[in-house]
Fold each of these.
Amino acid sequence: MSSDLISPNERTLKVALCGLGAVGLPTAKWLDKGVAGLKLVAISAGNKDRARDRVSMFNARPAVLDIRDLADVADVVVECAPPEFFAEIAESTLSKGRIFMPLSVTSLLPRLDLIDLARENGGSIIVPSGAIVGLDAVRAASYGTIHSVVMKTHKPPRSLRTAKYVVEQGIDLDSLTEAKRLFKGSVAEAASLFPANVNLTVALAFAGIGPDRTEYEIWADPSVDRNCHTLIVDADSVHFEISIAGVPTNETPGTGKLTALSLMSTLEGLVSTFRVGG
């Protein structure tokens, strides 16, 4: 990483968060409590006055800045904002050679040129594992031969009400009495239909055999109250099946509580002197 913001004595990474919602706010609070090697220096949000109010009682209040200014003061810029802001956050961060940490991973699919932008400017893109487990094993298996990767997701209907495909098709999820499969196909296809709902599956695809070969099913299921995922991987080195039942956040039912915790772990991993996995 190319950065003149890191103190050579303190070895502290300055962090900026773009978004103070179900993921950004708990991460901001965690950073404000004090994390060795990390310092929250700036935030950005759609409603700046509300953002200032939310951090008004912080021990060290971060600056509230426009998106394009975050990378001027931070070594790491975390994107946990609505997808329409993804490109501006990514380009302004990577053009300055910083670390870009996206949560809207689906938005990377049509913008793989950002990898070149990072390379040209000495920056990097680091994707947290989010609400999925097993990415380490998938990534390791990819150094051999992976035959297939299948992800099946069952979510409470309320967490899919605003999904692009559901809205466009006029599907009434509130009247469901049994599980309804909304999609079966590749992750690449799912990304265009459920752009805000398949971030973790896109991360899985990047870790393994790519979005075109990774298979995906998504179900609206009134019998579950958690975001449930089953991952099946078959490779020449391993075969495994993992089931995950993530607890959704109250603010955003489609987002699991583990997502913010994964972000915290990834951030701390940047400065840790001892790590397991990742």
Note: The first helix runs from residue 24 to 33.
Amino acid sequence: MFRALASLSVATLLASGRAEPPGAAYIFPAGAQRGTKTEIRVGGFYFHGSAALSFEGSGILASPTVKETTTIWFEGPLLSEPASQQKEDYPKDYLGEVRVDAGATLGVRYWHCHTSQGTTAAMRFVVGDLPEFVEKEVEGAAIPQTVQLPVTINGRIFPREDLDLWRVHAEAGQTVVCSVAARRLGYPLQVVLEVRGADGKAVGTTRANAPIGSDESVSFIAEQAGDYDVAIHDAGFAGGQNFVYRLTVCSTPRIESFFPLGGRRGESVELEVTTTSKEQRTVPISLKDAVGESLTAPVQLDGKAAGAAVLHLDDLPELRESEPDETPGAGAKAVTLPAILNGRIGTGGDVDAWPIDLEKGQMVLFEVLAEDLGSKLDSLLTVHDSEDKEVGRNDDRAEGRADSRLLFTAANAGRFVVKVADRFASRGGAAFAYRLRATPQAGPDFALTVAADFINVIRESAPVPGPEPDAKKKEPPKAPGLKVELAPVGDFAKDVTLEIAGLPGGVTASGTTIAAKQKFTEVRFTAPPNTPIQVARLSIRGTAEVNGQKVSRLATATRAFGEPPGEAVRLAVVPPVPFKHVSEYLVTNDQPGGTTAAKHFRLERGGFEGPLTVTLADRQLRYLGGVTGPAIAVAPGQTEFDYPIIYPVEIEQGHTSRAQLMVVGEMTDFDGSRHRISYTSAEQNDQVIAITTAPRIKVTTSETSYPAPSAGRIRVPVTVERDPTLAGRPIRLELDVPAHMTGVKAAAVDLPSDSETAVIEIVFAEAPGVVNAPVTIVARTNDPPCVGAAKIELVPVHQTPRGKFAPAP
């Protein structure tokens, strides 16, 4: 990337462009074992060489910055319409290091990056207790990588149609469990796992049909001692840089589910643990010194680490269900409120029932904690009177939130029964536990959440001398605000006034009232021109009248239970961008693959006179299909440039290729600080648009696959057909070999202008190493620059076949 410097006083800006906010697509690996350090790659957008890295909480020491490195990239199979018409992101790799304390708490930590152009959303990183293995990604067919149990494997399904293969050894009768974390870490991989023995027969398989946030696992019992291959791929054979996963493979029992899901602070809890081998064990857990809402308790079984139980903590008395409890008799003892009621929907159709005695007009808030605590239960909560008539019901507490919540008011004094079931009568099991929090209420109440844990605020531009702006000129669209959402409890309907602490000096906020009966507000922030570029941490509290008294509630970012609470919102003050590139609408209707085309652009500098660098943008409105472009330098004061686009040989013909550019420079702010800033345009006029057609050079070989002998050589006859526009042009033939296949090479061959055939001689080293990917014969002419290519498969002569992994039906 560029290293251009320029001096620019913000007071001289003549334009106020929108900064390209940074973004993060992944961290890889997505976790690490306690007591270790690991190199990480962050997939970043618009980092422009480096970004600050921050982890929340304790137990992790990370590099203060991540710095750009060579991006691992495999093009993979080309997409065709309609998929090729969709947007595509192209993050770059940034290197850093993470050290995890030996005593760090197991579980999720959140991290984010920030630059002068803003802050990214927080993402997850996992602290684990098993040895870790990080995939070394190479191009081509899957190569089995041997790992020792127990292990957590960090991998990526990349590129599209990728399949990763892991080889483990198991003794006869040994149970092996393979479980994946991907979607619950925020990544799009829809996992399929398949396990085969040495004879090629499948011994375990699963196809994921789980909703967002869920992952799959498969277990098997080894019929005989030997090596077993675990394959993982995406259900739709998608893939990408951010298809990150953590695959834990172990033979010792691990926690699969537990009951109850929590306990009372200062006491202890007898945890009924169900393991991956379907054993049920009881483990005592002390909550004597527990604080906060949750406790991550490491669990050992037979002296070996078995994972961690993330327990919900409360101060209320605890009760456990007594089976059967669907129809408590008239003499059943009523629950004394307040209390936490712990139950489990053990089988399909199971209904748990809790009797309570209420006075007329008494209000009780019932809150089911299940999905939020990692349970599989999709709760249905109902209240019944003494004649079993339903008098209250709630399914989901909010859209997308499966746990139930009901503020119930007793119409008459008497016995009521609160029932908990799964929404689907066929479901149940050890993993369908819940905690029902039952608390008397004086009246309605409310809670607040923020839709995001960050917001980037563009600083206002300083006024400039000159004529008044045109009053008829269309105002630019408003930048999005921070959405603060209200969750009413009962019939709450009052104005809620928001108070925001931690605002940088001079920054103001508007939209700080949620009107009665409204569900949200958009808080918008204004930063005056001389506000320093910075990241601040805000806390947002809402105050309203409840039962004649003023009450205050903290707005929090929604996170999974057991994860660090998102109580702060990061606000980044970012500078306006003075410069931008503009062009005229142009479509090239016949752009052959393997050629290069350039488009002319003008620069509107807006007072910025320093050097700039132009590249393809990190985010694209359409899949690029292998299109690339260089980084070109624009000299200080220069106001025009031509940008070349290189179209690959293999590109979808008839595809409307659209590419967006990114212009990057470095400004000096009013306080002397320097900041890298960039501008990207999505306007159609500023895109490089071309309709792609067939290459002008066609390359064919006599065969599509050839043997790959050790310490040998093969001769590959090649035919080259030139487009009439290239008649009489000499062509050079070269062999393009994937970087990891170091034992394969060939000398270049020059094809005279009057010749169409040649022979490429491919030489194999005595120990050529892995040969798992096609090689490409590239034909190239320089005047004009055109490229053609043909791929050939190399088949190792001495290759022992193993069971083939194929897409699930």
Note: Confidence is low (pLDDT under 50) at residues 1-17, 208-213.
